């Protein structure tokens, strides 16, 4: 989050727009480059053709060796997500970030198979009631996808909880041993005696946790907030159980990500079984239609 401008941060453009190849933190960015100075540092904005951006996102999000229909599904979803966010950001300095806020983007990245998948679905996006949908997606659901209202506090007619077969994912099952001291630091709470699950979502994921504190007080925190504060990879999902182990907590869980929308590893499994990208998309986004994006 610290790598993007604050909501009310004043930015000042440095120099003119540049064309070329820029290396930032080991990543190459080609196309037009703008550098802006803000209160918290310098910000680099990369302007590239829309479909080139989609190719880079798909390569960053899934494996280039995945089934072609899974790559096509990811291309349509990434394109839809980008169009939605682009419209939402309007005339701001940038349209999308390369972070968990939006989608992974790794600059000048190319792959023949991914380029083919993007080109074969060129301009295709998912719509509902003639508008681009907010096409949430994630890595691994862990048996079922999550309801959006449980994560984002808002329901969508095209986002339901559906079965997801993603046993091949490296995050199908996982275990994390996290010291209580690390949890105290992340939550800015001292003297934690224990943590237990207080409530569950409708799909069986952990919803709220109750924290016992030495001062005989208790605090309640949402599991989604604990994930954010600890780190998305530290706690891969909210689909977990937990037990105390001396000065640590052992989290045993399934899945990776918020669990809403398309499950990437399930899409791969469906493609392996012969499902087309359109069948995959209709499974995770029921009631949607594919339409060509007019602003391309």
In brief:
By secondary structure, the protein is of the alpha+beta class. Helix content is 27%, strand content 31%. The protein contains eight helices and 16 strands.
Description:
The strands form six sheets. The chain has a three-stranded antiparallel beta sheet, with no helix packed on it. Strands 5-4-16 form a three-stranded antiparallel beta sheet. 27% of the residues lie in helices and 31% in strands. α1 crosses α3 (112-120). It is globular. It is an alpha+beta fold. The two termini are 29 Å apart.
Fold blueprint:
Elements: E1 12-24, E2 27-38, E3 41-47, H1 50-61, H2 68-89, H3 112-120, E4 124-128, E5 131-132, E6 137-138, E7 143-144, H4 148-152, E8 163-164, E9 174-179, H5 180-187, E10 192-200, E11 206-213, E12 218-222, H6 223-230, E13 240-245, E14 248-253, E15 262-263, H7 264-272, H8 277-284, E16 289-292
Parallel strand pairs: 6-15
Antiparallel strand pairs: 1-2, 2-3, 4-5, 4-16, 7-8, 9-14, 10-11, 11-12, 13-14
Helix pairs in contact: 1-2, 1-3, 2-3, 2-7, 2-8
Question: Main attributes?
Answer:
single chain, 296 residues, alpha+beta, three-stranded antiparallel beta sheet, 8 helices, 16 strands, 31% strand
């Amino acid at each position: 989050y610290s790598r993007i401008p604050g909501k009310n941060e004043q930015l000042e453009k440095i120099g003119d727009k540049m064309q070329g190849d820029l290396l930032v933190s080991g990543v190459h960015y080609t196309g037009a480059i703008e550098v802006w100075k803000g209160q918290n540092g310098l910000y680099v904005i990369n302007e590239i053709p829309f479909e080139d951006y989609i190719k880079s996102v798909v390569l960053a999000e899934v494996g280039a060796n995945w089934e072609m229909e899974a790559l096509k599904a990811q291309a349509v979803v990434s394109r839809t997500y980008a169009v939605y966010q682009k419209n939402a950001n309007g005339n701001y300095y940038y349209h999308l970030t390369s972070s968990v806020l939006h989608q992974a983007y790794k600059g000048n990245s190319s792959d023949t198979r991914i380029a083919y998948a993007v080109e074969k679905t060129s301009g295709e996006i998912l719509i509902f009631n003639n508008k681009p949908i907010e096409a949430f997606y994630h890595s691994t659901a862990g048996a079922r996808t999550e309801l959006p209202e449980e994560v984002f506090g808002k329901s969508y007619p095209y986002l339901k909880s559906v079965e997801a077969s993603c046993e091949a994912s490296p995050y199908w099952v996982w275990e994390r041993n996290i010291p209580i001291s690390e949890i105290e630091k992340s939550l800015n709470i001292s003297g934690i005696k224990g943590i237990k699950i207080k409530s569950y979502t409708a799909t069986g994921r952990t919803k709220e946790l109750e924290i016992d504190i030495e001062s005989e007080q208790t605090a309640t925190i949402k599991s989604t907030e604990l994930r954010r504060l600890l780190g998305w990879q530290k706690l891969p999902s909210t689909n977990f159980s937990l037990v105390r182990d001396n000065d640590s907590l052992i989290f045993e869980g399934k899945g990776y990500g918020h669990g809403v929308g398309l499950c990437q590893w399930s899409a791969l499994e469906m493609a392996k079984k012969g499902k087309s990208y359109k069948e995959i998309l209709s499974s995770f986004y029921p009631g949607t239609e594919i339409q060509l994006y007019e602003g391309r």
